[in-house]
Amino acid sequence: MSACTTCGACCASFRVDFSVEETEEQGGPVPDGLWLPLTDHTARLRGTDHSPPRCAALYGRVGERATCGIYEWRPSPCREFEEGSDACHRARQRHGLPALET
Ligand code: SF4
Ligand code: SF4
Known about the structure:
Layout: E1 17-19, E2 35-37, E3 42-45, E4 58-61, E5 65-68, H1 76-80, H2 86-94
Antiparallel strand pairs: 1-3, 2-3, 4-5
This protein binds iron/sulfur cluster (2 copies).
């Protein structure tokens, strides 16, 4: 089973920006209310630029049981983020979780 089903560290570590074309407002999947306009072309997941960052769509406790509330509708950076990547390890480290064994 993927470590991601309990982890969620990446959803509480990085800014998540994507094209406005992925927003519901413009016919895309990402629900309105969970993103903020950044530029004319770019949107940001709400909460990901807070200090500390935490995506507004993330439910549960990081490292215990964390789930994405919009999994089917999440934007491309979330779809492309790789479990076991350097960024994954950095996110987990930030939350006091061990790097995944690869
Ligand atoms: S930090 Fe890594 S293990 Fe944790 S949810 Fe993100 S991709 Fe999955
Ligand atoms: S949309 Fe889902 S997968 Fe993407 S950062 Fe937020 S909680 Fe994580």
